[in-house]
Amino acid sequence: SASALRKMTRANFVSGVGETNKPAFLATMSAQSVADNTYTKLQYATEVVDTDSAYDNSSNYRFTVPSGEGGVYYFTAMMQSGGMVTNSRAQIVFAKNGSRDSTTMARDYAPTNSTTLYCTASSVLSLSAGDYVEVEMLQASGSTQSAGYGQFGGFKICSV
Fold this sequence. Notes:
The chain is mostly beta strands.
């Protein structure tokens, strides 16, 4: 609960017994095609950091909480999409165990003078061992677009 998180965070800070913010990971992506009006999993395929080998950068493109590492995690993701037309939109959202979390959705709309959209999202999620988190994108431009040049990362804040 939020109250337990506040107490734990304050207790760790005051006592000097903080956690190590592991597991932690960061992965980047170059480019991939994203169909119009369809949620598409983003493929962050280049690992930069993966302290516990918990991020799959080759097939599922997801972070999975290792055994014994349940707790509260912070996640961040970003991407850009080029070739967007005037008044089109793009959004990214975190999916926990395959279900999109609408509270984490970030959107951007193309104004009349721009064809590149940038989306950034962040969230704090309570996870158990075996839970996984992915990033999905939806774009509405009328045609398939290229998305990429972004990153997806996260780390454990504390145990619960």
